[in-house]
């Protein structure tokens, strides 16, 4: 059985290196106490198959991303996209990487997701806990924004004819010919009265 899987290991240098890196992560962590499940115990054959499927999923993802290009050889853009995706998947699978995503490998080993699905995941699927935390922080940060109350604005240049305050704003537009003056549009911030003059 090992010989049949050996024939599926990619020959291309980048793909082979990615396969080896993914296999190392799976081999190192798959049968540890945290990831060991009652349902599955992983031997070399199943880990090799899983790493092959992950690498193929990454390659298929890149092929799909670069679908508009006719030449799908290892040109620089294709190679860069492939390596970026491989690094993303690898670092999210590796629980002791700087990302600290322990849940993704557990979901993969518990068969909650398959190898090909994982390669197409966005950040919200790959590490939902971190993604939700960042979203929450961003919303909290923006929810503290309060527009400046209108009454605190300094007085404007023009006096409102309706409420007699100077709390006004204005803008100018060239509505007529270029040799004539611009039209000034004024809005009262207190009573919302609007007027224009030349």
TrEMBL record:
UniProt KW Repeat keyword: no
Keyword Disulfide bond included in the entry's annotation: no
Any single Gene Ontology cellular-component annotation: nucleus
Domain TFIIS-type: 156-196
Gene Ontology biological process: regulation of mRNA 3'-end processing; transcription antitermination; transcription elongation by RNA polymerase I; transcription elongation by RNA polymerase II
SUPFAM superfamilies attached to this UniProt entry: Elongation factor TFIIS domain 2 (SSF46942), Zinc beta-ribbon (SSF57783)
Pfam family membership, one: TFIIS_M
Molecular-function annotations in GO: nucleic acid binding; zinc ion binding
Organism, scientific name: viral metagenome
Keyword annotations: Metal-binding, Zinc, Zinc-finger
PANTHER family: IP08861P-RELATED (PTHR11477:SF0), TRANSCRIPTION FACTOR S-II ZINC FINGER DOMAIN-CONTAINING PROTEIN (PTHR11477)
Name of the featured protein: TFIIS-type domain-containing protein
